[in-house]
């Protein structure tokens, strides 16, 4: 009963209406836009079929060495030591060790590395005409020693990864994806397309695309609703009345939490049904799994809603709603923009999982264990955060917890 | 279950500030008026009794339940804070129903109690009105209804008449008197008129301490023979204020009638007059060493 009352409070709030508008808006402008025509079968003789990961030493070795030299000269290394992005800057001692590895890999001497001050990264730059142009960048010439075997190369890359602190582009987990991509052949593309039909059964692929888009939204918007509900007692002057009731803090906080999660799932499920209708429209003759998108949304999106809501409630209870929104925004931003990969960029602690493609069934399947761990991790962490919120709520209720680090807008006693 | 609150040597600190100093008080069924200035410690004491503040020393038991047992305390206490409101977009009925749920009441009981209380606080016609549309007086009455919703053994009301017009204030006081027939009611206020109209049993607080405890008539007795009126020209007013504690004055053209408190009959022409509760309260503060020079 209390659960339903809390749901009603949320549903009839302006913040919930905004949540729905943004969610549906995002759905229609993103997913529905990508869902207008069936995935085209590759045609033999096409100029480009995209790329795939494949362990090819001849491609990987020069590319990875070039990458390592470039990062060394820039002084910054991208890494995901615990699944979160980290910009690593090495101490002088470690730079010396890494320079020795680079010398072994590339033949570039330590002196050349030290004196080279004309470094330019490769990538797209603004051209004189205002358009983007690709530049190869500028690094010292690489001469891979003929005696360097592939095994030696991998071993040296492992050492480099260890010096960087783990999780770098040169780790065993990342090196192929980062430096060993080959153009797809017609046969590769056709195989992938057939997998889309036969293994993914169409809806599986659209379910991932749907969750990729919606995941961006449900990883941040729930914090606004969590803040709204947590702050509402304070802003309405209702806190003392709620505090003085018999209900336990754990029951109240968990009920509010689950009502928030429940109400936020409803529009997600509605868009999932709309998504299925969209897919059915473009594949009218295929047998589709009616619940594939819903099922994927449950394990993919609910942990995001849970985590974002729990973080919002906890930070609001400790400090204020504004800080909660800031913290959640920073987390979301870091998660979204830390990785340039839009497909299969899922690690143990990646908050916003991305897979912005109808293809890549294999990538997704290969990462299945990581995905299960990841989603369970965020679910458990969320529940622990809510438990902590309930403990803090009870302490505040008894006048024990008195936040002084942050501004608390709760009304103060006047006597 | 005994219908009594026992407060024994209670201390409460806000950081290093001692908000309650060795407070000892026994409160029986009926209404107790807790009178004191702003900042005297009344709200702190009320919050301690409602298990909304922890105490650092001493003990409190409400109807035999130690204050540490917060959940049980919350189920037998009704609390009306000084500064409160309810969700503005909810109706009167919905607000009460929601708070009833938080008190663990089942649907039938909630319906019965809400009907009965809306009648009692005269808000029957406003049941579907949104809280934000209620007047200050109506909100206060809704406040008392929510505090009585779970039929508590003790009702704690903190400055309930602040901001009400005279008519609403009288209505509210009468309501409190009715309620006090069945339970312990603690009325905290700095408005002497509220106490005068509702309580026989009072406690005066200042600086976190209980200065005086007893009946209104005894407090008045203590002040007998210490209140005088002086008729003087207006130009002497400053001098009178300097020499005596002034509790009232009435200006008429060039003359002023001043009500003063004085231990002995003043040397100037003054008429002894029976004290009212305001005089008695000010004298109580004065005789306990409090600075009352601000007077009137």
Brief digest:
The complex is a heterodimer of chains A (415) and B (296). With 415 residues, chain A is mostly helical. Chain A is built from 16 helices and six strands.
CATH architecture of the largest domain in chain B: 3-Layer(aba) Sandwich
Task: Count the domains of chain A.
Answer: 2
User: Given the C-alpha coordinates, what overall shape of chain B results?
Assistant: globular
Number of strands of chain B: 14
- Helix content range of chain B: 25-40%
Termini Cα gap of chain A? 37 Å
State mean pLDDT of chain A (0 to 100 scale): 86
Alpha carbon gyration radius of chain A: 26 Å
Strand content of chain B: 25-35%
Rg over C-alpha atoms of chain B, rounded to the nearest angstrom: 22 Å
> Share of helix among residues of chain A?
55-70%
Q: Approximately what portion of the residues of chain A adopt beta-strand conformation?
A: under 5%
Spatial gap, N to C terminus of chain B: 46 Å
Topology order of chain B in helix (H) and strand (E) letters: EEEHEEHEHHHEHEHEEHEHEEEH
Main β-sheet description of chain B: 6 strands, mixed
Describe it.
By secondary structure, chain A is mainly α. Chain A folds into 2 domains: 2-40 and 191-397, no CATH class; 52-183, no CATH class. Chain A contains 16 helices and 6 strands. Chain A has helices spanning 2-11, 14-34, 57-74, 92-106, 110-115, 150-164, 175-179, 186-198, 203-218, 222-235, 239-243, 249-282, 292-318, 321-337, 361-366, 368-397; strands spanning 51-53, 77-79, 86-88, 123-126, 132-135, 181-183. In chain A, helix 2 (14-34) runs antiparallel to helix 9 (203-218) and helix 13 runs parallel beside helix 16. The longest helix of chain A is centred in the middle third of the chain and has 34 residues, at 249-282. By secondary structure, chain B is of the alpha/beta class. Chain B folds into 2 domains: 4-207, P-loop containing nucleotide triphosphate hydrolases (Rossmann fold, 3-Layer(aba) Sandwich), CATH 3.40.50; 223-287, no CATH class. Helix content of chain B is 34%, strand content 30%. The longest helix of chain B has 14 residues, at 107-120. The model of chain B has no long low-confidence stretch (mean pLDDT 90). The A-B interface holds A 1-2, 5, 9, 12, 232, 236-238, 240-248, 252, 397-400, 411, 413-415 and B 36, 38-47, 50-54, 70-71, 74-75, 77-79, 81-89, 97-99, 101-104, 107, 146, 150, 158-159, 188.
